[in-house]
Amino acid sequence: MAADRPRPAPRSLATVHGYPRQGAGRELKKAVEGYWSGRVSAGELRRTAAGLRREAWRTLSDAGVHEVPTGDFSLYDHVLDTTVMVGAIPERHRALVAEDALDGYFAMARGTQQAPPLEMTKWFDTNYHYLVPELGPGTAFTADSAKPVGELREALDAGHAARPVLVGPVTYLLLAKPAPGTAPDFQPLTLLDRLLPVYADVLADLRAAGAAWVQLDEPALVQDQPPAVLNAAARAYRELGALTDRPKLLAAAYFDRLGDALPVLAKAPVDGLALDFTGPAAANLGDLAAAGGLPGKRLIAGVVDGRNVWINDLERSLATLATLLGLAGRVDVAPSCSLLHVPLDAAAERDADPQVARWLAFARQKTDEIVTLARGLNEGGDTIAPQLAANRCARASRAASALTRDPAVRARATAVTPADTRRPQPYAERSAAQRARLGLPLLPTTTIGSFPQTRELRTARADLRAGRIDAAAYDERIAAEIREVLAFQEKAGLDVLVHGEPERDDMVQYFAERLTGYLATRHGWVQSYGTRYVRPPILAGDISRPGPMTVAWTAYAQEHTDRPVKGMLTGPVTMLAWSFVRDDQPLADTARQVALALRDEVADLEAAGTAVIQVDEPALRETLPLRSADRAGYLRWATEAFRLATAGVRADTQIHTHMCYAEFGDIIAAIEDLDADVISLEAARSHMRVAGELALAGYAQEAGPGVYDIHSPRVPDAAEVAALLRKGLEAVPAERLWVNPDCGLKTRGWAEVRASLTHLVEGARQVRAECGTAG
Fold it and tell me: Are strands 162-167 and 68-70 parallel, antiparallel or unpaired?
């Protein structure tokens, strides 16, 4: 029968680079954490992971995706998976990996009491964290193809056309850092010739397992790279392309335009490229034409934004695809990058306003957009006319919605003057006033803000939402937790206390739910690192603050202690970076609106007697544009937004900020321009490197480089804390050095926190005594 004849393959395929890993109910998080706690066996964990992979491939295939990705799934992090694949296991973890590969894998991610974990930092300008490879002149690479080959075979056995996706060799080396004991100026890229044969072995293994194509991701090439890096990329892909025992190779880059690297990859002897054509990467279209296109080669065109949640402009994307047809031998349709960076399914948001729901596209909806565009490209725009009309109508409804514009907010933002963004007193004058008011000892101790979010707190929130308890009962539970947190801090001997944030499930979502213009999700989980998932709110309209957000609980805490209690806020840049932002106005405009709302909150905290106010900006570095030409403009409005939020306070009110898990050396000047009185920064995993960077830059204000790595279950002893403090004192004088953990404590258990903070205070006392001051 005619219906039984196989359909010819379409000219243009629909595909994706990666898919959310967690499952609809965050099954992966539960299985991994269950394994860590001993409730789940290794076999059960692997079966859960395999089931999630099969479900993802089936979902993609059923939607009409012609080629599914493999290798993008990870139990913790895909860069860590690459470290295992190339055999670059740090010396301190090798025995653990040899004894038990799974436990050794997690030891590299989380550390053990004897073996600290790998350093962790942000994946380019996203809020995803990767584990930093440690490499040195003696690193010996060896191929371990088990994971990529195993997952490819799973997909092929299930009947899917599949394309393994691996971190490319150049990007892997550029993401690495010198191993402990290696000269700090060692360049991991010098190991390229040693690494390429390992990639050759993996490619041969994948070909033998049935791979027709393999994708090598090289997002590091969208950054400004010197000729040496471009030459290394050219050499790498010349050698890999010359291999005879390999699948077809696809070099991929995303997050920005490739610039000078585009002709390098276009001319390499590979079989295709995958490029981003959204946002600033839209410039790739003109650059590709200028480079002569990709005649006879495959182009995977990323025309659907893989990092934001708004519906695509289908007509614009179809026009881009039509232009690209003339520049490549074959054009396939894809998102701009892996869909790892968006939630799974907007249809799960059943409580969303139906009008707003029309504007949203999560991973499943983006997959549908990709399939629709591929069909339009293959069969003509008329075949998708209903989808184009519905898309046009939804976009028009968003543009015309009253939710997106508030004249009063816009008028206030327009009226901001330079005087509103600068504290009138210089730091020296403020510092003297704050010391007199606070009376703190040398090397004052504090925490970053949050304390453990216990099962009891999560249950209380769930009970409130379900109506099992009323608001008064919930408030009493929160009040009791605050009293317990304060009592522990006083007993431990901390100098500046926090209320522990028991009422906050997330440092961005909590504020988003109390500001106009934000939309919260119920199921919009996105992986931040490992088993840490967040629900970024959606910034849909103009921002204002209807009323105080934190004052009542901060004041309550201060009533129950004689020591200063910090007011805790999330800064304007982080409120943007950890949300899905508007794409219909400049980020600077949105940041100013958020800053004005926070300015009102800061004023109310100060009026209530709060002497120390911390405005966290952990995302300042991660949002830094990948191209240097765009950075000055970003840092100008980003630092102005922070100052606008904080500059209205008195001289004796101490302003803190906090940053974590980023390369701070790139933004030292911007940190100084924030004009905060105290900054706390992650430093434990990097062994106080940031303290030296601050000193080298001449940073003259107070700083607290972290001495306790809160992303590991390790409990540092007092000697370890003291050793880190002594290292910090080599760069920052004692009168300007604070003692604190790397980050908030919400993800840790109380047993770890009690021991670690007790040791932190004890270590600080030891070093104070060495400085000649008791306390």
Answer: parallel
